Amino acid sequence: MKIRTTSLRLWAKTVTCVILLWSFLVQPESARALSIEEETTLGQEFFSQVNRYFNLVEDDFLTEYLNSLGLYLVRSIEAPPFPFKFHLIKDGSLNAFAGPGGYVFMFTGLVMEMDRVDELAAVVCHEIAHVSSRHLSTRIEQGKKIGLATLAGILAGVLIGGPAAGAIVSGTMAAGIQTQLYYSRNDEREADQRGFLYMKNAGFDPRAMVSVLSKIERGRWMGTDKVPAYLLTHPTGPERMANLDIITREYTEGPLPPEAHFFASEYPFFRATVVAMNMDSNDAARVFKSEIKGNPKSAVGYFGLGLVMKGKADFDMASEYLARASRIAPESAVVLRSLADTYQASGRVNEAISVLERVLEKDRNDKAALFLLAGCHQYLGNDAKAVSIYEKLVSFPPVKDDVFHNLGVSYGRLEKLSLAHLNFGIFFKKKGESSKARFHFEKAMELAAGDNEMADRIKKAMESGPRPKRQQSR
Q1: Domain 279-380 is of which CATH architecture?
Q2: In whole angstroms, what is the distance from residue 372 CA to residue 338 CA?
Q3: Using alpha carbons only, how large is the chain's radius of gyration in Å?
Q4: Are 441 and 461 contacting, i.e. CB atoms less than 8 angstroms apart?
Q5: pTM for the predicted model, two decimal places
Q6: pLDDT value at position 30?
Q7: Which of these, 435, 442, 434, lies nearest to 459 by C-alpha position?
Q8: How far is it, in rounded angstroms, from Cα 437 to Cα 428?
Q9: Alpha-carbon distance 166 to 421, whole Å?
Q10: What one-character DSSP code corresponds to residue 399?
Q11: What does the pLDDT look like over 313-337, one tens digit per residue?
């Protein structure tokens, strides 16, 4: 991961943020706390900061799995203060954190250390417990006095750690700010207790929190600047470990709910995808070959090798490995989707369609399979079929930006130009490119002359709130 912290402008801004943050940390206790509305706005600003400086994983399977798991775990909260959103950051750090407003982030480096889904669930439950307890909001004092955007940037640096936090935590005054924002031991105790209940209710083993914390503790290196960021923001030590041991001592395993069984069965493929994405390709290949050596019928091993070969654009070898994985695990949707995607990338489109139809026989609303299938039909020139599938995907929010772009392409080929420009307008608006969006909306309106229903649809699309523009890391 490359973080844009090299410019003098950013360093100057950070120092300014430190001074401003200190100015509101000295406010009296009675003046503290954010309302739900204020924290929601802060959360949006916070996400914008994270999205700007860090690489968020956009893989469909990883995003769907993490969010489905997170929302399943959230069911234990009677009245969630915010709608939860879960994101994976491509970074080797041992870290995870909950930002303001229900945003929960997991680092790929931490996932790679987790051997089973219970450990992932343990960290996610702990973070949603911080959110449901409103711990972060109680540690923010009069944030609105310095502006939520500024505060969001400071929080991003402190919670994420690494080089971006270096300027914030340098110096005596900044160290005091760091202490103010980190969770207290009481916060951790409450989050551990609530997280235990969330895990127990969901059917996962709460003792996994002890094992994953032990792994993070082993991640310590020489020097205080090498302490895993998770341990900086989440105080641990013998007392906390002893409390966790007491909490989990009385736990007895019960029957596994169907949802927990599903997440457990898919987790090895989730982790393999993270390994293939995050590690050097040669190192990742060695990991998967070692898996196959220990178990020649390891679907996960062949799946992982397939992903590695696909990343190298060796589609023939990728197809061979993924096909072998599909024969071992014929019910795995992620294996079949990956095989179909590889077939499509190598021009074997009809074979891809055949595989995708197998997936959709089991789940006709599989969004990732539908998106790939629409792409196959678009590649073959079956634009009417592609449009019907893409329009179905529009009815299943959240909708990928590319769905609108591809709709624009297919509608254009079908000479439905007003619809083509409408979808291009939506696409560019979601990307934050307002001038391009405006051009396409105006063109769509011009072409819709006399069609009041279409004109109303275009106006509605123009008036809907834009999504913040994503700025890629350099």
Answers
A1: Alpha Horseshoe (1.25)
A2: 10
A3: 24
A4: yes
A5: 0.81
A6: 37
A7: 442
A8: 5
A9: 46
A10: -
A11: 999 999 999 999 999 999 999 999 9
